[in-house]
């Protein structure tokens, strides 16, 4: 288990402030290193979580049709620039042999995976793989839509541009009708 070292983060933030020509001892910045360290501890809490743990508890319910939780908001940090990206995840699966999970568990898994230095592609595939491994459904599909501040604030500077990633497992890889059903539900507003 990774331990977050708040003092080390505080020291690093002081160095960054000095590096950009700021005085970390001026009134407005005195507590900034502490605040940033606490924020990082919260934002990277997912480093100590395995999303599969959310699917260890399941319920027996005779239901072998689509389950979809859409528009799950998330915030993450781009591992390339350590700036935020944020958006919505849509998580679907088709239970097998009555093995269903609590709906909130799908959202919790997204949150756990997002709360670490991350790539959007990895969030998408990690959540889909965790569902497949723990629940053994007929299939799982995850679609993630996000705006990346590394494209909005810097570099190409294109606010509003969204990146969409998908991960299809099981029946969603082989059955175009099932895959289209999920996408049509996601696109309904």
TrEMBL record:
Pathway: Cofactor biosynthesis; 7,8-dihydroneopterin triphosphate biosynthesis; 7,8-dihydroneopterin triphosphate from GTP: step 1/1. Coiled coil: none annotated. Pfam families: GTP_cyclohydroI. Its EC number is 3.5.4.16. It is an enzyme of class 3 (hydrolase). Zn(2+) binds at residues 78, 81, 150. PROSITE patterns: GTP_CYCLOHYDROL_1_1, GTP_CYCLOHYDROL_1_2. One of its GO terms (cellular component) is cytoplasm. It comes from the Bacteria. GO terms for biological process: one-carbon metabolic process; tetrahydrobiopterin biosynthetic process; tetrahydrofolate biosynthetic process. Keywords: GTP-binding, Hydrolase, Metal-binding, Nucleotide-binding, One-carbon metabolism, Zinc. It catalyses: GTP + H2O = 7,8-dihydroneopterin 3'-triphosphate + formate + H(+). GO terms for molecular function: GTP binding; GTP cyclohydrolase I activity; zinc ion binding. Residues 9-186 form the GTP cyclohydrolase I domain. NCBIfam families: folE (TIGR00063), PRK09347.1-2 (NF006825), PRK09347.1-3 (NF006826). Belongs to the GTP cyclohydrolase I family. PANTHER family: GTP CYCLOHYDROLASE 1 (PTHR11109:SF7), GTP CYCLOHYDROLASE I (PTHR11109). Homopolymer. This is GTP cyclohydrolase 1. It comes from Perspicuibacillus lycopersici. The gene is folE.
């Amino acid at each position: 288990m990774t331990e977050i070292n708040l003092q080390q983060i505080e020291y690093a933030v002081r160095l960054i402030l000095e590096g950009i020509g700021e005085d970390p001892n001026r009134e407005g910045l005195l507590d900034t290193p502490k605040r940033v360290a606490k924020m990082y501890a919260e934002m990277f809490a997912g480093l100590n979580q395995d999303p599969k743990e959310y699917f260890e508890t399941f319920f027996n319910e005779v239901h072998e049709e689509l389950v979809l939780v859409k528009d799950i908001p998330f915030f993450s940090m781009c591992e390339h620039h350590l700036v935020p990206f944020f958006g919505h995840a849509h998580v679907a699966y088709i239970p097998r042999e009555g093995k269903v999970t609590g709906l909130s568990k799908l959202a919790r898994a997204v949150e756990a995976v997002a709360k670490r230095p991350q790539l959007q592609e990895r969030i998408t595939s990690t959540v889909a793989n965790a569902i497949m491994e723990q629940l053994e459904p007929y299939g799982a599909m995850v679609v993630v839509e996000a705006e990346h501040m590394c494209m909005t604030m810097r570099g190409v500077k294109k606010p509003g541009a969204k990146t969409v990633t998908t991960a299809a497992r099981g029946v969603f890889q082989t059955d175009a009708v099932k895959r289209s059903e999920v996408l049509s539900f996601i696109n309904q507003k």
